[in-house]
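Here is the promised in-class demo. Please do not try to memorize the tokens; focus on the logic of going from shape to residues.
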């Protein structure tokens, strides 16, 4: 019996600029619906941090062969974070697992940290736990779903790269407690640095689209 034809791939609307314009339009709709609020654009994503380490390049004397640590254990946890590139504000939580309930905890934490006159347009991907019907979205947060296959439109991906390059590589975490401590330490340092967030999580495509419109 012949196999059914595969489903057509999801494609970006009208190319990269079309995707960027769509996201900018959704943000404008959120702002128009809340004229008394100051709308901030936040980006959200999750990263898995575990004891299966990664190795990166290191500084060493020319001609030498430096060694580095790399674990092969498979315990891990999830870091859920969001950042506002315009202000440098950010927040995050650490969870043992990732599901809709974990996202609820994160949304409540983000809502609590927003100023009374601020409404957050929170941009994230279309993962199932981001769009679950059971999600309890706070009144001061609106979720905006990125189009498929567009990770470059979520600059918080750059934050994970920064973490892995500077903090999560060439390390040994003998116990679960050590792993948790390392994750907390990174969050305390990186998320408390507004200038780092503004630089690493910059989203210039939003500014370009607003100028064109």
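The designed amino acids, position by position:
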């Amino acid at each position: 019996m012949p196999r059914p034809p595969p489903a057509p791939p999801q494609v970006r609307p009208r190319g990269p600029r079309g995707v960027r314009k769509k996201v900018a339009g959704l943000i404008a709709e959120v702002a128009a619906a809340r004229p008394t609020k100051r709308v901030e654009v936040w980006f959200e994503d999750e990263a898995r941090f575990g004891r299966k380490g990664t190795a990166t390049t290191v500084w060493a004397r020319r001609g030498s062969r430096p060694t580095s640590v790399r674990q092969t254990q498979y315990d891990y946890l999830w870091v859920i974070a969001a950042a506002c590139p315009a202000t440098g504000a950010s927040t995050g939580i650490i969870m043992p697992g990732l599901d809709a309930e974990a996202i609820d905890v994160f949304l409540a934490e983000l809502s609590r940290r927003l100023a009374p006159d601020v409404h957050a347009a929170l941009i994230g991907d279309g993962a199932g736990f981001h769009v679950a019907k059971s999600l309890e979205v706070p009144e001061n947060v609106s979720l905006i779903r990125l189009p498929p296959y567009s990770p470059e439109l979520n600059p918080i991906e750059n934050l994970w790269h920064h973490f892995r390059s500077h903090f999560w590589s060439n390390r040994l975490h003998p116990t679960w407690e050590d792993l948790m401590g390392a994750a907390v330490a990174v969050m305390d340092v990186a998320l408390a640095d507004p200038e780092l967030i503004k630089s690493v999580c910059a989203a210039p495509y939003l500014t370009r689209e607003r100028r064109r419109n």
